[in-house]
Amino acid sequence: MTELTDGSAARAPGRPRSERAEKAIVEATLDLLAAESGVAAVSIEAVAARAGVGKTTIYRRWPNKEALIVHALATAKAPLPVPSGASVREDLVELARALSAERRRKHARCFWNVVGSAEKHPELYARYRQVVIEPRRDVLRAVLQRGVESGELRAGLDLELGVAMLVGPLTMRAPMELFPEGYAEAVVDALLDGIRAPK
Amino acid sequence: MTELTDGSAARAPGRPRSERAEKAIVEATLDLLAAESGVAAVSIEAVAARAGVGKTTIYRRWPNKEALIVHALATAKAPLPVPSGASVREDLVELARALSAERRRKHARCFWNVVGSAEKHPELYARYRQVVIEPRRDVLRAVLQRGVESGELRAGLDLELGVAMLVGPLTMRAPMELFPEGYAEAVVDALLDGIRAPK
After folding, report:
1. Nearest Cα to A117, choosing from A175, A79, A66, A82?
2. Do you know which InterPro entries this protein is assigned to (chains A, B) (predicted)?
3. Looking at domain A78-193, which CATH architecture does it have?
4. A81-90, A159-168, B5-14, B180-189 — which is least confidently predicted?
């Protein structure tokens, strides 16, 4: 009876054993990716050893190292919050704060390493942009687009430029460097109103 | 006589043999630094082997690997052009174009790797910022400061924020990704005038 109970308990809430394995695999991938050698340090063998699972457990879920890395990166980078839509400024501040808070994450360096390795691993980088980055940029583009439509932002605004002007100053520093208090708001206000003296 | 002539010739224009060695050492350091493992791939041994010099030749000039790396990075990153001073906009466009052109450089990835390794090599990163980055940011700060003094830019402008808003959008992409035509000018204009609709 005990055996059966244990077995049922282990299967019941969403197959916890397999979930535990997946979590360990993702965590091991991110740990390796955050190391100095970045993408070069990640192999199915190394992940299996670090996660304490067999290689077949990994291959059952991910066809190759690249798919595993992109999945792990997507797990580590939460979607951006859907902004409240009160005003363009409030929405942008909300998003800028979220971007700025991400620097504190344990695995911030993974992303730096993947972008730094883009030339060496162009397909991985392309897939990373498609799966992880573009959906996040879509949230930003939508806010800017709504602002153009509501008349808050310039007609004909280049949305890509707007996204770059917001994200650039919030991501350019080394992963460990935090921004000063109020930085996210300051970036948004400089972006909205510019730095030219009022006439 | 031939021997003497050759000897004089070899010594005459700025000790070419030692200059050749230095050039080879710097080049080898940058090649290693641009590789996937970044800073971890650079050792005095590896540089000596790649440059075809003895380790003592390196130690005669640089006390350690960190000093060599910072010197090599400073060599690879030319100083920013001194802007003409015609107007803040023209100066900023000139600097933004220079920053944007640097992506095409062979060794662009070195810088990405050093910043990505900042947590692991905090002293190297600090020295890199001090020797290579800060003098470049000084050029940008000076242009903004002049703009505030001339009344072209807002009084009380946060110079650090202004620098970040200019440099961020021009450096955030992967090293191999080029910017569209006119991007540098578009960044400067968005920075100066903002993206808010005129009232």
Report:
1. A66
2. DNA-bd_HTH_TetR-type_CS, Homeodomain-like_sf, HTH-type_TetR-like_transc_reg, HTH_TetR, Tet_transcr_reg_TetR-rel_C_sf, TetR_C
3. Orthogonal Bundle (1.10)
4. B5-14
Q: Residue B37: its chain A contacts at CB < 8 A? A: 36-38, 40
Q: Which of B37, B161, B170, B195 to mutate to test the interface with A (most CBs of A within 10 A)?
A: B195
What count of CB pairs under 8 Å joins A to B? 157
Does the beta-carbon distance from A154 to B116 stay under 8 Å? no
- Chain B residues with CB inside 8 Å of A96's CB? none
Cβ <8 Å between B117 and A36: yes
Model pLDDT for residues B87-96, shown as the tens digit of each residue? 999 999 999 9
pLDDT of res. A6: 39
A196–B154 CB contact, under 8 Å: yes
Alpha helices in chain A (DSSP H): 2-11, 16-34, 44-51, 55-61, 65-76, 88-101, 108-116, 122-128, 134-150, 159-171, 183-193
Residue B65: pLDDT above 70? Answer: yes
Domain residues of chain B, as ranges? 2-74, 78-193
pLDDT of res. B178: 83
Asked if B36 and A36 come within 8 Å (Cβ–Cβ), the reply is: no
Query: Which residues in chain A show pLDDT less than 70?
Result: 1-15, 104
Domain B2-74, CATH class in plain words: mainly alpha
